[in-house]
């Protein structure tokens, strides 16, 4: 049986492979983060079903980068090796559309609540970091 390379897959097949890979990687996350992450991934992939080719390329590139980051942070055994996640580049945040900023903000509030962190008045007002 011959091996199939990524270049031989159709775009929908590559999307499906990335989607399933990310969900598999999430198995190594703590339970609460896994549930939040799985729901977020499902929503994002559904939301981009009908996007234009340029957006699709950017979408795939960023999610592949996410999968790579999670792979490094979980290690070979699928258990977190230290802290999960990474800081966002402020210039990348500046390029987000308004609805993406709202979505990022809601994700921040959800993760704070999961970690048992107190959601402050500054969080609710949307204060920017200093």
From TrEMBL:
BP terms from Gene Ontology: mitochondrial respiratory chain complex II assembly; succinate metabolic process
Major subcellular site: mitochondrion
Coiled-coil stretches: none
Protein location: Mitochondrion matrix
InterPro entries for the chain: SDHAF3/Sdh7 (IPR008381)
Keywords linked to the UniProt accession: Chaperone, Mitochondrion, Transit peptide
Domain of life: Eukaryota
A GO-annotated cellular component: mitochondrial intermembrane space
UniProt keyword annotation of Chaperone present: yes
Pfam families listed in its UniProt record: Complex1_LYR_2
Similarity field: Belongs to the complex I LYR family. SDHAF3 subfamily.
Assembly notes: Interacts with the iron-sulfur protein subunit within the SDH catalytic dimer.
Function summary: Plays an essential role in the assembly of succinate dehydrogenase (SDH), an enzyme complex (also referred to as respiratory complex II) that is a component of both the tricarboxylic acid (TCA) cycle and the mitochondrial electron transport chain, and which couples the oxidation of succinate to fumarate with the reduction of ubiquinone (coenzyme Q) to ubiquinol. Promotes maturation of the iron-sulfur protein subunit of the SDH catalytic dimer, protecting it from the deleterious effects of oxidants. May act together with SDHAF1.
Name of the protein described by the UniProt record: Succinate dehydrogenase assembly factor 3
Organism of derivation: Drosophila lebanonensis (Fruit fly)
Protein encoded by which gene: LOC115623881
